[in-house]
Design a protein that fits this description.
The strands form four sheets. A seven-stranded mixed β-sheet has the order 4-10-9-8-7-5-6, sandwiched between helices. It is built from 19 helices and 15 strands. It is α/β, with parallel strands linked by helices and 484 residues long. Bound molecules: pyridoxal-5'-phosphate. The site of pyridoxal-5'-phosphate (PLP) has 14 residues, from helix 7. The site of pyridoxal-5'-phosphate has 14 residues, from helix 7.
Amino acid sequence: MKYLIALLLILNIGYCFVATKSPTPHSSAISLSQTFDNSLYNADEEVWTIVNDEYNRQFNGIELIASENFASKAVMEALGSCMTNKYSEGLPGARYYGGNENIDKIERLCQQRALSLFGLNVNEWGVNVQPYSGSPANFAVYTALLKPHDRIMGLDLPSGGHLTHGYQTAKRKVSATSIFFESMPYRVGALDGLIDYDELAKNAELFKPKLIIAGASAYPRDWDYKRMKEIANSVGSYLMADIAHISGIVATKQCNNPFEYCDIVTSTTHKSLRGPRSGMIFYKLEFEDLINNAVFPALQGGPHNHQITALAVALREAAAPSFRDYIKQVLTNAKALSNELIKRGYKVVTDGTDNHIVLWDARSTGLSGSKIEKILELCHISVNKNTVIGDTSAATPGGVRLGTPAMTTRGMKESDMELIAGLIHKATNLAIKIQSEEPNQSKKLVDFVKHMKNELYRDDINSITSEVHSLSKSFPLPGVKPSK
Ligand SMILES: Cc1ncc(COP(=O)(O)O)c(C=O)c1O
């Protein structure tokens, strides 16, 4: 390093000398390369430090956020490549800018890999790989298939649905989907937590939606796409599946296949599929022009070519037999985690899971999901609070969503899930104690968070945290490690 700095200084001094004496095009090229060829560390230590801290947080902690994963080094290299520099509005072979021969190649390759991964016949299906992420992909579908104020039905957010499937409250149109379209949700049953297809059929008959959406962000069971198609057919509606969470599971055929019944399938690419943050829209060919025109020019501008490049890499990784083994382990780990929580006396919504999600109904602990999220965060376990059926307020949800894709990528197996459940149990017991010792007997989250940081509990928190670190650090973190 010392020698490198010395060399850079010499070059720089040399350049200054030449530049002051006789500036030439050649010398200004040297100056450019000195500015732009610096590593992140040398160019901007402040940003490097934040990235490095985040790397360490990910490496030391236990990541149980169901929508997150760890992308590979190859995916990250593609994301950080020169493909980020290029404008390419339009589609392969029909761009609004010159110089796109390589961009055309990568986008076509990405499309081929996407169709092939999901076993789709190119005479029936096409795919647009340009959506910037899952939410824009969904909005592009609505823009393509619906007129303003047409009607849609998606799973209600408190039942596990996603915001973009039409979420609104009595007071507020929360999602743009509910601003521009008329939304009526369907729900899970109050007793069993399972999608109430009968109620969906009844309400669809009355509401006559133009689009029904299958798919969720916090639903631990598989989907009956056949039944949903029958309901859609009975009211003349399109059927779309948003497989953002489960696309890795669908790709490896470890769950029901939405492509058998749906007109459109959207997905993010960074969850169980383990790619870069991006989105895809698969469409039956009759919708090709509508979908492509909705993505561009209706909603987006230039495609993010570095994402498309990285997605092509991730799709190849997902086609390998090892990815199928990985997904099987994700599912096995989720079942193990669910069983371990049940063994410790906790309630899990639907009493188990078919996928990568364990939805923990924590209300019997007397703690809100938010308090459990906070104490686990203090112990370096990342989870998110989640509404569970029967919650009266979305502001204080009674559940916690746990997911296994990320830690399974790092190599964890069922026995590690047992250890994780044990750590969650310890932290939860500590949270119960902290709440009961809050000086004013306040049940407010702010007061809990303040009291949780009291000196009294430091040793207990430190002890759980060091157990978390020693477990987590024994599993490698894939990707690009920030270097100096
Ligand atoms: C089912 C579902 N659809 C869409 C999205 C939106 O994806 P993004 O956050 O990439 O916009 C999510 C994100 O969590 C999701 O769970």
